[in-house]
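ok so I'm stuck.
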Amino acid sequence: MTTATTPARPTGRRHSVVHRLRVARVERLTDDAVAVTLAVPAELTAEYEFAAGQHVNVELPGGDGVRRSYSICSPAGSGELRIAVKRLPGGAFSEHALSRLAPGDELDVMTPAGRFTPSFDPARARHYAAVAAGSGITPIMSIVATALATEPGSRVMVLYGNRTSSSVMFLDELADLKDRHPGRLQLVHVLSREPGTTELLSGRLDAQRLGRVLDTLLPPDTVDDWYLCGPYEMITAARSVLAGRGVDRSHVHAELYHVGDAPPAPRTESAPVPVHCAVTAVLDGRRSEVVLDDPDETVLEAVLRARNDAPFACKGGVCGTCRAKVLDGEVTMERHYALEDGEIAAGYVLTCQSHPTTPRLEVDYDA
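replied:
not stuck anymore, here's the structure
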């Protein structure tokens, strides 16, 4: 049962919304990856301003209603909205992008989102380190280029794992960045299926090899902040290695590009899932109410029955598009990869992964 939507309070929009954008350029990066530049009309410029490390969610007009998340690879403040798309087996959008997408085509694109974002200060000198695998380099490209341009006193090291040299995304652009900042950017490629420059850099970027690389090339105590982007296994290994070397978790920032076989977080069993929960959602300053009486239905699925404009994308706990703050009641989350520990402590949840554990629940997408 859904009640009428009512005003809640004035609010500045904090969640993503969809606009139709034209494709300006499609560039081949590797045999299975392209970069897509999107033309943003002048009247939407402010809505598509982004921070380094953010992403957009994309949907084919008239498609299956499934949205795909792609990180922005251009530097913040560049005025260019550019994403990278790598082919996934059976991936409807990636197959379309690599085989048929062309300048002049249109895509439904949500405004930028995500908190895998450093805060830069031109007066500050820091040492950043990034560990990426495969298409995980995409947000790292934006972070690195923005850091080098914004903080003249800062240094960056990028440790980038791939199968072969031909599969390295942004190979030339990374080399150009290094040439422009030879004393400030250290770039290390690790190849798993062909010989690297040394034995140390030849093989999978697993915990053992990462530990050796740190001990040899990058003492962790010289790094201020770490940015990790790749598959679940790599993120988990890197976190473990850094923790074992005394790196404070608050200085390690991670973003998954695919959940894959990552196990769900165990549900909290301290309170039973109610068979009947009155859910209130605040979105764009309006309150909507809906009843959730199926324990397998997520909060997002329930809210979408009342508000089809509720923000979402991956529905896998990775992108963070459906993030909201719990104002009343409690939930348990199956996965929460897109949230930092501080956000969880502050009451934020991913509604696509949330199940109520109280008879009443209020969530605020504007918070």
